[in-house]
Amino acid sequence: MNNFKLLNNIFGWFSFLFALVVYSLTLEPTGSLWDCGEFISAAYGLQVVHPPGAPLFLLIGRFFSLFAGEGHQIAIAVNMVSATTSALCVMFTFWITTYFAQRFIEKQYGSSNTTLNILTVLAGLVAACSLTFTDTFWFSAVEAEVYAASSFFMSFTFWAILKWERVSDKPFANKWLVFIGYIVGLAIGVHLLNLLVIPAIVLVYYFKKYPYSLKGLIIAIGVGFVLLFLVQLVIIPGIPTLAAKFDFYFVNSMGMGFNTGVIFFLVALVVVVVGGIYYTHIKGKVMWNTILLSFAFMLVGYSSYFMVVIRSQANTPIDMNNPENPLNLVYYLNREQYGDRPLLNGPHFMTQIYSVEKTEDNYIKGDSKYEVAGYDVDIKYDPNNLMFFPRIYDSNDETHKVGYKEWANIREGQKPTMKHNLAFFWKYQMNYMYWRYFFWNFAGRQNDDQSLRKTHIDVFNGNWITGIKPIDAQLVGPQSNMPDSVKNNPSRNTYYLLPFILGILGLAAQIKGDKNGSLINGILFLVTGLILIIYLNPPPYEPRERDYVFVGSFQVFCTWIGLGVIGLYDLLQKKVSKNLALGAAAAIGLIGGPTILGAQNWDDHDRSGRYMSTDFARNYLKSCKPNAVLFTNGDNDTYPLWYMQNVEKFRTDVRVVNLSLLNASDYVESLREAQYDSEPFKLTFTSKQLWPGTRDRVMYYAGNSVVKNPNQYFDLKQIMQFIANDKDPRTKMMNRGGQSESFLPTKKFFIPVDKQKALAAGLVRPEFADRIVDQIRFEIPTEGLTRSSLVMLDVIANNFYERPVYFTTTTATETYAGLIEYFQLDGLTYHLVPIRTPLTQEAMRMRDYGFIDYDKMFAQLVDSFTWGGMENGKMWVDDKMRLVPRVMRGTYIRTAREMVYMERKQQAIDLLKACEKNIPHENLTYDGSLIEMAEVYYLAGAKAEAGAVLDKVSKECLDWVVYLKQYKLKDYPGAQDKIAYNNYILNEIPKLCEKYGDKDKASEIAQKIAAVGAP
Predict the structure, then answer these.
(1) DSSP secondary structure string for all residues of 595-648
(2) Which residues pair with 835 in a beta bridge?
């Protein structure tokens, strides 16, 4: 036994080192997309990330960063937190698997021997190494996100209860239960997914302490879920809520200072808990003593959230929701900005609102007490149109409503029924949002393109496949004659169902040989997978794939893959010698699990040379003049910019303002403060005038008494002053609720232009001085202003000459507030300038906004910008990373076209060649913009270069046509769109060649088109 213990420990640590080497070799060397830039920035500076925060992850990240140098080395250090915690998770998965393998062997074979010890270790290795290479787990392991650390805490907690199970009858065994309480408390400071292990912990306790019965099993599972909801919904939000209530009473009722009530509550809590521990100890109440000790240690772990409050009080540059006082902390922890989703009873998306009732006032910290700032409302729906288990509930988002109709097959005007509700639940939530992700990891993945079709029929993007052609043909259509871009796509991974079959074999073996163990693993698998999807109740069309949420269930399945080796051996040893059975089980397990997963997944999970997100963020900042304000909108615009400024300290004079965050009053307050080299902004509105509940939305009222001529334009700054005026009754209107509120008297504004100031500020170069207008006239396209739009216009009105105004080119058009005609395309940004460029329908369709300073653009695109490694040869560019390169390719082409018109043809050719070098075809496959590139080459007289581009485009289109001809369009409606698109491109190519006199190329491509029978 001692020999096995040593062997078990050695190979457990080996699995850790193996995984750590894999993740270190494939680690992203800088900040990736989504939250990674935010987390790296916040870890390095101990700042406050989006709700509900991850203070322990940030503290660990800060510790790792202490061993780094500067710049992207800090990113590597924080990314290594994920690599290290993922490797630790792999190690604990090894030990969890060997634990269940030992249970199986003890029950099936009575005692162990050398062969069975080797078999046990093999099971652990297959499970651990399979997890190492699984798609979802590997993705999270090489970037600075919390899900890797969360997976570690989940496996660590589960391993700890299994350690308790082995020694539960020995003295001091309950220390493991106290330790689990501490781990759970720590894990709260990373992510709440770790709490999902609680029902499995209760089952381990039940099976060890009580004889099995169906009734006992049901009660144990029920207790597990009660404990889960007790921790998540009572303890985590309840303690800060009680502290906030005490503080509110002490401050507002007793006139004491802020935080007095918090201190009183915390002292009282410590006294009560310590007193309870002491009392139960001296009275010999072991169970209650263990419970109180576990609770106390959970609170110790949970105390990492003090970091959030402390750092928020320092007003760090990233200070989401400003949780510096107890009331704000409760709002932060409860994630109130994201709203709620109904679970057991609620409306469907067509249910009418019955009434909106005020519930309670909200408060915000004032000068000497907490002051009212808006109120909560309770939306009442028509009680006759509520349904049990509502899945199709969201009436606020038009995209969601379209999705409900498509997935549940609800015809226009048809009232949703429970049948529709369950259809959506099964097709979308269960199949598309869980089982699809599951099979990505254990059967195969078609590609990493997230489907953007507003229908569930999309056989070309994001599906699961197997690599077995007859099966895949049933799943996604024909598998022969695939285009090279499909067949050789690095994210096309096929495992031939081998990991899945091994896992099912392992599950079957555990059910047969260790029923209780299979129930423990089974409940953990369900809670972290199917039950979790029920609780989350996701609406259709997420902005990104959400497979990382369910990684806990994939970890459990990897345990079953490892146990599949045991199941194989158990079957084979009855037919052949034990040594041969061991060898065969080992070979099949290692090849069918980690080997095929690693071989297939390496190329699209290796991010070791990729700097794209931060290089593009650098390009954004390079596009801006000194002391600029850069308005962004999405996570992938904003967080890499935060990283560049907070970590690499690049262009800290530019203030990045996220328009979606600007709806929050605390974020508006940050504009009044200096950040690094960026000075505060001048604003019309005071802090209180933008508190929650005040000017959340300023509506336009046509026919008001203030505006006599509806065609008149008004000074933007004066309109801001009008909206901010709380003394003049003419600035107020009565809303539908009978309350007086500020209103927007006009939708037409102007910004007066001082030409000398504009030139002196560098807004316009002297050679363009004759194009400067007297006023920037614009009309907002909406019927009112959100707080975000209001503050954005206020920033522009009051800081136009001192702070050059920029928008990212990837921001949605509606966020530009009607200013498009005054844009100048500067690199990756639109610069607001006093030069009008009339907007044509073609420009609107192509998003070709504003005019171009050609010399500046040429210098940026050819000499200044960096390209994240794309320019160095073939590298994998995933679907979200492709957005900016596609925009930049269009920018290259547009700039080159304009240069041709200015008779600067050689520069246009140089520009297009730089585009092909920096954004090579193999890293960003063809689209319609390449036709435009070929045309510009023709216009510039570069016939050979144009022909080379058209050869690439025509080959890709012809490959698709050949492939798509195999589809039966009635069975695959989505194929029709692709056929039409490729045929359109193919029809345009010969016309383009003929237009510019390239008859040989036209004839050559026409012959190829005819050869495949394309129309």
Answers:
(1) IHHHHHHHHHH--TT--HHHHHHHHHHHTSPTT-EEEE-SHHHHHHHHHHHHTS
(2) 772
Closest to 52 in 3D by CA, of 259, 219, 240: 240
Which residue matches tokens 């003419």?
A: 730
Nearest to 427 by CA among 446, 441, 406, 444: 406
Residue 432 identity? Y
Tell the residue number behind the tokens 């008001």, with chain if given.
704
Q: Specify whether the CB–CB gap between 45 and 645 falls below 8 A.
A: no
User: How far are the Cα atoms of 323, 661, 664, 960, 998 from residue 320, in angstroms, in the given order?
Assistant: 8, 9, 9, 47, 58
User: Are 35 and 639 a contacting pair, CB within 8 Å?
Assistant: yes
How high is the pLDDT of residue 723?
93
Residue 717: φ, ψ to 5°: -65, -40
**CB 136, CB 150: distance < 8 Å:** no
Q: Which residues of the chain have pLDDT under 50?
A: none
Torsion on CA atoms 695, 700, 701, 705, rounded to nearest 10: 80
Residue whose tokens read 């009434």: 355
Q: Which residues contact 393 (CB under 8 A, 6 or more apart)?
A: 341, 342, 346, 347, 348, 349, 537, 539
The residue type of 732 is K
Nearest to 515 by CA among 219, 207, 224, 164: 207
Q: What is the CA radius of gyration of the chain?
A: 31
Question: Where are the chain's structural domains?
Answer: 2-290+298-316+496-605, 618-849, 890-1012
pLDDT of residue 355: 79
Amino acid 456: pLDDT: 56
Strand partners, 630: 656, 806
Q: At what angle do helices 198-209 and 515-527 cross, to 10 degrees?
A: 160
Query: Crossing angle, helix 929-939 and helix 973-995, to 10 degrees?
Result: 0
pLDDT at 75: 95
CA distance 393 to 401: 9
What pLDDT, on a 0 to 100 scale, did the predictor assign at position 453? 62
d(CA 490, CA 554) in angstroms, rounded, equals 22
767 burial class (0-12, 13-18, 19+ CB within 10 angstroms)?
A: exposed
Residues 786, 663 contacting (CB under 8 angstroms): yes
Judge contact between 533 and 438, C-beta under 8 A.
no
Q: How far is CA 880 from CA 200, 364, 601, in A?
A: 36, 38, 18
- Local structure of residue 252 (DSSP, 8 states): I
Q: Which helix (H) or strand (E) holds 896?
A: helix 883-901
Torsions phi, psi for 167 (to 5 deg): -120, 20
User: Contact 195/184 with Cβ under 8 angstroms?
Assistant: yes
Bridge partners, residue 284, by sequence: none
Place of tokens 């990233």: 318
Q: What is the pLDDT of residue 87?
A: 98
Q: Cα 842 to the chain's mean position, in Å?
A: 33
Give, for 830, the enclosing helix (H) or strand (E).
strand 829-832
Task: Give the count of alpha carbons within 13 A of 266, CB side only.
Answer: 13
Number of alpha helices (DSSP H) and beta strands (DSSP E) in the chain:
40, 19
d(CA 373, CA 824): 40
Rounded CA-CA distance 312/318 in Å is 9
Q: Residue 778: beta bridge partners?
A: 749
How many other β-carbons are positioned within 10 Å of the β-carbon of residue 596?
A: 21
Cβ(620)–Cβ(634) under 8 Å?
Answer: no
Q: CB within 8 A of 463, min separation 6: which ones? A: 436, 445, 446, 475, 476
- Distance, in Å, from the CA atom of 360 to the CA atom of 409, rounded to the nearest integer, reads 40
**8 Å CB contact between 207 and 162:** no
Report how far residue 638's alpha carbon sits from residue 709's, in angstroms, rounded to the nearest whole number.
40
**Quick one: pLDDT at residue 39?**
96
Which pLDDT score, from 0 to 100, does residue 737 have?
64
Distance, CA of 934 to CA of 940 (rounded, Å): 10
